[in-house]
Amino acid sequence: MDLYFSPLACSMATRVALYEAGAEANYLEVDPATKTVLSDGSDFRTVNPIGLVPTLRTDEGVVLTENAAILQYVADRFPQSGLGAAAGIDRTRLHQWLCFIGTELHKGLFVPVLDRKAPQEAKAYVLEKNLSRLDYLDNYLKGRNFLLDHFSVADAYLVTVINWTMATPPIELAKWPNVKAYYERMRQRPSIAKAIAEEFELYKAEQARKKAAA
Description:
By secondary structure, the protein is of the alpha+beta class. The chain is built from eight helices and five strands. Strand 4 (55-57) and strand 5 form a beta hairpin. It has a five-stranded mixed beta sheet with strand order 3-2-1-4-5, covered by helices on one side. Helix 1 runs antiparallel to helix 6 and helix 1 runs antiparallel to helix 8 (190-213). The chain has helices spanning 12-21, 67-77, 89-114, 120-130, 132-141, 153-162, 177-186, 190-213, and strands spanning 2-5, 26-31, 36-37, 55-57, 63-65. The longest helix is centred in the middle third of the chain and has 26 residues, at 89-114. Belongs to the GST superfamily.
């Protein structure tokens, strides 16, 4: 299978999940500015017209988009990994957390704050309105190791999003000690440590390319 990704973007969650599953995959880096696949210079939009990562091409040639859907596909494709949840309330809880991370944290909080073109007033409004999502998460994680009763694709997504606090100074993890402790634990997990280290190096190379082109 092929995973189209950009360094340290939300696509890193799928990299973590694939590492957890011990799955073989081709990792194809996409320049987020030009929408170019770096390995061959092709236009990524011929694969995903919206031009967003992650995008996954399965071994059967099916192209999948949207982070939550791709993560659930990986969990179902590799059930021995334990990344998913059993049918019933447990699977619904997994859906719940994937939706919460994707809407309340990823799009609702971090994307506006990370947007370099967004007015400061807009960012201040988002922070005032949506930091309560982290209050909720902090309270939930008290005494818990994972979002479910085991490591799942929801944790892979959550740690990927929390990792963005490195680039969002207004969101200081010290204010949410349970979230901070969770993040620090997760970063010690081999699949996550490997993914972050690899993608950070790719991110630095990406920034160097941009600087050289400026």
